[in-house]
Design a protein that fits this description.
Layout: H1 9-19, H2 29-44, H3 54-62, H4 65-86, H5 95-121, H6 126-137, H7 144-155, H8 171-197, H9 207-226, H10 228-253, H11 280-285, H12 292-297
């Protein structure tokens, strides 16, 4: 029964699907729900700092329902994209309606596409990793799979990590630094792997080349079926999802730095190198992403057993 609480994000999903066929203020309901109602309730509800007992953790580890809920997100995300795209066949939409639908799809790109893709991307099972890449593709951010797992987790809370916000760094400048340098870092990591394996950098074996071809093919299909204007709407929604991710990145590591020895090596990453939040609704809606301190301390730990 404890696993069923993670079906709560489906509420946001249903509201979003509904908004793709509405007009007026109702089209903004997913945004109002996510950035208005939920934060307001979080101010009223006390955070829950309790961790699972060892027996509860052992049970949660073997409960496949926690995994099934993540797998379900994959088809749901693409159903949402299809309904978002086809919804623009309505001819009576004004700029307010269009912006609301794009923002609503952007929320799904951030919460379902990137966030769930992030969780599955840390799994060792090849099929779960493929699902992660498919979800990240739905937000046009597939290179996150490379940089986050092999760059960010290695370099977190250091000056060489583009996704770790520095003290007094404005969030809007952080957006540009994190997005641009994370992209470059992903190429550097993928290229280095190619050289180690004896392959040419620009080959089909390079994950970054694969990711670009997949994303371009996806956009071409959307453009062919729905037209350039609606394709641009989807790209803006994906950008909103990316900015949601980067805002979370900004919060999770703001101002924290690992100590560096005289030899130049950084101390091991420990929970105090990430900010942690135990607010109940945020934990559920983001599949425990806000328990970020434990996630960085042990990245292989599944979301349902993360500790405060």
């Amino acid at each position: 029964m404890k696993s069923l609480k993670y079906f709560a994000p489906i509420i946001l999903y249903i509201i979003s699907l509904k908004s793709f066929w509405l007009t007026g203020i109702a089209v903004w309901l997913p945004v109002i729900y996510s950035f208005g109602l939920i934060p307001l309730l979080e101010l009223l509800l006390k955070p829950n700092h309790k961790n699972l007992s060892q027996a509860e953790e052992d049970l949660a580890k073997t409960n496949k329902w926690y995994d099934y809920m993540l797998y379900l997100i994959v088809p749901l995300q693409f159903i949402a994209i299809y309904l978002f795209l086809i919804g623009f066949s309505q001819t009576n939409l004004n700029l307010f309606d269009i912006a609301g639908r794009i923002a609503s799809m952007g929320v799904l790109c951030g919460t379902f596409g990137i966030n769930v893709g992030h969780e599955l991307g840390h799994r060792t099972n090849i099929w779960e990793q493929r699902m992660a890449k498919v979800l990240l593709m739905s937000s046009l951010y597939m290179h996150f799979f490379v940089e986050h797992n092999k760059g960010h987790h290695k370099n977190v809370a250091t000056l060489i990590d583009p996704a770790s916000a520095r003290f007094n760094e404005p969030v809007y400048l952080f957006y540009f630094r994190s997005i641009f340098y994370s992209y470059l870092s992903a190429w550097q990591i993928a290229n280095l792997e190619m050289r180690k394996k004896g392959f040419k950098v620009f080959s089909f074996q390079n994950e970054m080349v694969q990711f670009h071809l997949i994303e371009i093919a996806f956009l071409l299909i959307v453009g062919f079926v729905f037209g350039l204007k609606i394709t641009l709407y989807f790209m803006i929604a994906a950008l909103i999802g990316i900015l949601m991710l980067e805002t979370v990145n900004y919060i999770e590591h703001y101002g924290l730095q690992r100590k560096r020895s005289e030899s130049g090596n950084y101390e091991r990453t420990i929970p105090s190198h990430s900010w942690n939040s135990d607010h109940i609704l945020g934990r559920i809606l983001l599949f425990e992403l806000s328990r970020h301190s434990d996630h960085h301390y042990m990245a292989s730990r599944k979301y349902q057993i993360l500790k405060s």
